[in-house]
Design a protein that fits this description.
Blueprint (H helix, E strand, L loop, with lengths): L22 E2 L13 E3 L3 H10 L1 E5 L4 E6 L3 H6 L14 E7 L5 E10 L2 E6 L4 H10 L7 E5 L1 E8 L12 E5 L6 E7 L3 H10 L3 E3 L1 H10 L5 H4 L32 H10 L4 E8 L12 E4 L4 E12 L3 E9 L8 E3 L2 E5 L12 H9 L3
Parallel strand pairs: 3-12
Antiparallel strand pairs: 1-2, 3-9, 4-7, 4-8, 5-6, 6-7, 9-11, 10-11, 13-16, 13-18, 14-15, 14-17, 15-16, 17-18
InterPro entries: CAF17_C, TrmE/GcvT-like, YgfZ/GCV_T_CS, YgfZ/GcvT
Protein name: Folate-binding protein YgfZ
Keywords: Transit peptide
């Protein structure tokens, strides 16, 4: 296997933490994947604002990258993951999920194809188990699987241009509903040089806090922070591929573990919970704790689970959370005695018609 910057005994530290003003995230009590990179560089809200005014680059080199190559790489991944990958062209990019047999989410991956190879990046804590799973599933497939020492940089803004001398291994356009986003995978040894070239081209450096705030706005969950062991794909509407949006789940393919749950929910019903964005009471002395129970009403009945909490340059404190559908319009939502409110734009507007349910009703003469 290719030697990488990650070690079981030594925590990863990005060299960009040596930049002026760099402050590492305080991850104690939080499941947000932020260890080893800068949370901000001295101006956290201003850095996110810059992303809306111009262009910023965010160091996400704490993620790990796995390369799957060989004649069978496409069909091999197609049979294991929720994304349709058997015949995608070079340059294709999307997300994908690895599910267990009940359809619960085990791994969430961003991926790109370049030639015959697929590059898959995911949070560091998910990489060892995912790599082990892939290697155990090779059997007779003609594939080579190894972790490679690439670093992920994310560029956010409205005028993204890659300098000619940057020489990235992979450039991936991500289908977000907020700011335009480009993920660039480069040789880790070129991390500092690549950032300097982007800064010279007019891009500004921003910390992971800016990226996290935009991720919450885009309602893209991070598995360790925003989901739990019971989470299924339909709890995240943006992950279901529809029309020109590839999402992370292709609805017209089968033959992967957990597919039965995806098909059943898609055709017969809806997930009991759904991921939404919350506005958080900014007058509270402390932010609510990720993983806390969301309650509703005077009696404080449990209606959900809070995930990522972050301060946004426009909205103040915002958060993601899994909420029971029955509580989407509930009054008096709170967590840790702090008032929260479902952002009206985050309430899903899904097609109520279900092909499977309609077929059953026709069979029953309804």
């Amino acid at each position: 296997m290719t030697t990488t910057a990650f070690s079981d005994s030594v925590p990863y530290q990005s060299p960009l933490l040596e930049r002026a003003g760099a402050a590492e995230a305080q991850t104690t009590g939080s499941a947000i994947d932020a260890a080893g990179v800068a949370w901000h560089y001295g101006n956290p809200l201003g850095e996110q604002r810059k992303a809306h005014q111009s262009t910023v680059v965010v160091d996400r080199s704490h993620r790990r990258v796995i390369k799957v190559d060989g004649p069978d790489a496409g069909p091999f991944l197609h049979n294991l993951l929720s994304q349709k990958l058997d015949e995608v062209p070079s340059g294709f990019s999307a997300a994908a999920l690895d599910l267990d047999i009940q359809g619960h989410i085990l791994h969430h991956i961003d991926l790109s194809r370049l030639g015959t190879a697929f590059y898959l990046d995911l949070p560091a804590d998910q990489a060892p188990s995912f790599l082990d799973f892939l290697q155990r599933m090779i059997f007779w497939s003609q594939v080579e699987i190894a972790e490679v020492d690439l670093a992920v940089l994310t560029i956010l803004g409205n005028s993204i241009e890659i300098p000619d001398d940057l020489a990235p291994v992979v450039v991936r356009t991500v289908d977000w509903t907020t700011l335009p986003r480009l993920d660039v995978l480069i040789e880790r040894t070129e991390l500092i040089s690549a950032v300097d070239k982007l800064l010279k081209a007019g891009v500004e450096l921003a910390g992971l806090m800016a990226f996290t705030a935009e991720r919450v706005r885009a309602m893209e969950p991070e598995k360790s922070a925003d989901l739990d062991s019971k989470s299924i794909p339909h709890e995240v509407p943006a992950w279901i591929g529809r029309g020109d949006h590839p999402g992370a789940v292709h609805l017209e393919k089968g033959c992967y573990r957990g597919q039965e749950t995806v098909a059943r929910v898609e055709n017969l019903g809806r997930s009991p919970r759904v991921l939404v964005m919350f506005q958080v009471d900014g007058s509270a002395p402390e932010d609510p704790t990720p993983g806390s129970v969301i309650t509703a009403g005077i009696g404080g009945r449990s209606v959900g689970r809070l995930g990522t909490v972050v301060h946004d340059c426009d909205f103040g404190p915002i958060a993601l959370g899994l909420l029971k559908r029955s509580a989407l319009t509930a009054d008096n939502l709170s967590v840790d005695e702090i008032a929260i409110m479902v952002d009206p734009t985050a309430i899903p507007h899904e097609d109520e018609s279900k092909a499977g349910r309609e077929a059953i009703n026709r069979f029953r003469g309804k």
